Amino acid sequence: MKRLVVIAALVGAAPALADEGMWTYNNFPAAKVKEKYGFQPDQQWLDKLRLGAVRLAGGCSASFVSPDGLVMTNHHCARGCIEQLSTAKQDYLANGFYAKTQGEEKQCPAMEVNQLVEITDVTEQLNKATASLTGKQYSDTLKAEMSKLEKACSNGDDKVRCDLVTLYQGGKYNLYKYRRFQDVRLVFAPEHAIAFFGGDPDNFEFPRYDLDVTFVRVYQDKQPVKTPDYFKWSEHGAKENDLTFVAGNPGRTSRGLTVAELEYTRDVSMPKTLMYLSELRGMLTEFQKRGPEQKRISSNLLFGVENGLKASKGRHEALLDKKFFASKVAAEQELRKKVDANPELKKKYAAAWDEIAKAEAQLLTLRKDLNYLEQGNGLSSSLFHTARALVRAADELPKDNGQRLREFNDANLTALKAQLFSPAPIYAELEIARLTFGLTKMREELGAKHPFVKKVLGKESPAQVATRVVKGTKLFDPKARQALWDGGKKAVDASKDPMVQLALLADPDSRAIRKKFEDEVESVIKKNSELVAKAKFDIYGTSQYPDATFSPRVSFGSVKGYMDEGQQVAPITQMSGTFEHATGQDPYALPKSWVKSEKVITGSTPMNFVTTNDIIGGNSGSPVVNKNHEVVGLVFDGNIQSLGGEYGFDESVNRTVAVHSDAIIEALQKVYGATRVLEELRPGSTKVPPVKANPAG
């Protein structure tokens, strides 16, 4: 993978160059945008962008695109909902879905939309509370203070969500207050075949020809929510060199990590992740060969695994690039040299890098137990995670809010309960396969003589344990989960449910390794990362962006092609290319609705395009808007060069990949006859009947 690197830009040691940066709404480089593009967003402009862009709890982005709660996101971001609403007789993933009336909109069993309404800087409060503390005392105090602030912010209101966001590795803390919507209903989704046209071979590639879009609607009190802060649809869409803004929730970047942390990722965690995901993909691929129903119920999980595997490969390649990694080392050495040259800074910060390195060495000794006892690689099933949540809730909820495990604090309970009691279907055969795989890997990695392995398996094989607990559990039924939650510790401890008993059996060991990690590794890294961040502030100032944390961000850029292995890549593809790219065989087989519509689709309509906006995973579903807050596209991917963007940004080749706004309109009108959606996006546009109507589903 070829990339050009600018050392200062890679580490955030100096103000970002080019179109780099996933910026917070309260620290956006408006003057820089004006200098390069002639447009300077003011705070009012940024506030409207913030309110129009939303987050899907669970890992994606979206936006309001009508005043009546209509939300646009990616098809792959709504796959879970689409799959959960499907049955063996009506597969909406394969056939698509369109609600011709409001009454036909179907409620997603487990989807939540969050709209950021307020940002408060609480850095001073947290720094004051943790001053002079280290180790476990620092970690416990920080968590307690964070929980207290989140609880006060939400004030027990289920329609509010508050997240304490760590920025600059602890250099700053912001409290984000969201308006929460938990009644979300499916309005329109195309067929999987066009939403993910090209499949895994084309994933993270360009040119692309995908219609990766889905529309849902948010409701409150059984009525569509009024959303005055929405993005109107652009009349002309995006053209080459146009200024673009992407508002979304990038999941994670690691540009501010120390060399010791990057070395651990490169040499230990990433190779293990690649191996685990490769083997899991193999298991799921074989599972799908059992029959069409097995393929249907596992397709969403396989999609996620394949996407994660390809992304991880790209990130690993970036870290293996010797020149790239050498630049990270050189930049850290330069920063440390500046710290050491100033006696005051040296006293405050010099030891931080070495302390992080020691913590990473300690993590190496805990890694296997942490992965397989606590982090889900071994006991890998939805039902087990549900059982463990119920077991832990019974222990945690009686405690003071600030003393609980973070996922059980008051601010997180609404989302946790929505997930636990969701009516989304769970499939026994897939659960057995997943748990068998995880237990087999656990025995392989930890060894048959490991105390935890012996405790969990006893005299049984992984398949026997998995089959027994899955077939015997009643946790498929949300009412059974609710009864255990309501009954508390007494009900959980008395339960004869084999999945609950497995969770009770495993929990002491899982908690012990988690505590050891938090006390001896996580707390050390957090405290010293905070010191490294402050050292950067003292030396380079604060005109830089923080690493992504799945919190709302803005990036700016333009529609622009790039060079790939000596060839110029044009920035925009056309809908005619979709048909030229089709072979009739998966993953290049178009759905019947598209094959029938080829003659009426205007072939020159833009299909997908690329921009220089800086994004990362989590930006899927982000709107691409122009300076007038008009939708010109929908982010669904990055190119292969962008995968190294977790560790650095190179404007010459890193690209955002988006569905063009014109392609969405053309498909809604001429392929699907989705007039109700068209009328919301472009009021008055349906006065002329659509050329063709082949509504999905």
TrEMBL record:
MF GO annotations: dipeptidyl-peptidase activity; serine-type aminopeptidase activity
InterPro entries: Pep_S46, Peptidase_S1_PA, Peptidase_S1_PA_chymotrypsin
Pfam families linked: Peptidase_S46 (PF10459)
Keyword entries, A-Z: Aminopeptidase, Hydrolase, Protease, Serine protease, Signal
Signal peptide, first to last residue: 1-18
Similarity section: Belongs to the peptidase S46 family.
Job description of the protein: Catalyzes the removal of dipeptides from the N-terminus of oligopeptides.
Protein name as catalogued: Dipeptidyl-peptidase
Organism encoding this protein: Corallococcus interemptor
